[in-house]
Amino acid sequence: MRGLAGFLLCFLLLVTPHCTEVAAQDAQPDPKTPCANWMGGAPGYPGHNGLPGRDGKDGKDGLKGEKGEQGVQGPKGDQGEKGILGAEGPRGFPGHPGLKGEKGEGAYVYRSAFSVGLTERAPHPNVPIRFSKIFYNEQNHYDASTGKFLCSIPGMYYFAYHLTVYLTDVKVSLYKKDKAVIFTYDQFQKNNVDQASGSVLLHLSTGDEVWLQVYGEGDNNGVYADNINDSTFMGFLLYPDLDLH
Predict the structure, then answer these.
(1) β-sheet bridge partners, residue 185
(2) Where is the signal peptide (predicted)?
(3) Which of 85, 203, 221, 222 could connect to 168 by a Cys-Cys bridge, CB 3.0–4.6 Å?
């Protein structure tokens, strides 16, 4: 009896756990049912972010859009600072000669000059000395018949005279418009030939006359000229009055 009872006890012990496990599996609640028929556990933690996916293929270009309207012009910007001077460039090749220009109009040159000499040995006193030997009188501004120079171009003039003195003293003066401007006196030395001279700058207006004249008594007209001795009188324009011409 003991041997049979022990065998049965051992058999029950082996079968009971298996039946319990099967019963437990059959009695497991469905997780989809509310509360799963049992007390729910705490929510789990969010999972880690997955790895980014690979880049997709480039899409095709779309159609060209229409041209938009021009925008409003913006305000002018501030002037920039002056840049640094650049290096000098290489020297270029010589250019071709230009065309010859047209002939221009020449500037008018004002001329007035004379140079004359004496032919009479003893001119009369207190009247213009007539120098009738003409060295130069192209403009005919000197009149040999009167011994006077007539101004036709207003401006600044230079006059000079060089006189041979013989036989007696000489007193001469240069006149402008009936007024003596300068005087020259030479005292004659016997058995000799002297020289008397003078020069002056004068501003003349159109119509002014200039001449030489012996003044005083007849004993002071020793102005002389012959084949080897000359007494001369000259004058010329230095520059005209451009504001009048």
Answers:
(1) 171
(2) 1-24
(3) 222
Q: Among 103, 95, 137, 141, which residue's Cα sits nearest to residue 117?
A: 137
Tell me the three state secondary structure of residue 183: strand
List b or e across 203-218, with b for residues whose CB sees 16 or more CB atoms inside 10 angstroms.
Answer: ebeeebbbbbbbeeee
Structure tokens at 222: 């020793």
Low-confidence stretches of the chain (pLDDT < 70) are 1-40, 104-107, 122, 218, 244-245
Specify the fold of 113-240.
Jelly Rolls (2.60.120)
Contact 136, 152 (CB under 8 A): no
Residue 49 Rama label (left phi>0; alpha psi -120 to 50; beta): beta
What pTM value is reported for the model? 0.56
pLDDT digit string, tens, across residues 206-228: 999 999 999 877 678 888 888 88
Place of tokens 């021009």: 70
H or E stretch covering 12? helix 2-26
Structure tokens at 122: 């003893």
Alpha-carbon gap, residue 172 to 145, rounded angstroms:
19
What is the Cα–Cα distance from 107 to 93, expressed in whole angstroms? Answer: 36
Contact 194, 186 (CB under 8 A): yes
For residue 158, the surrounding DSSP H or E stretch is strand 155-176
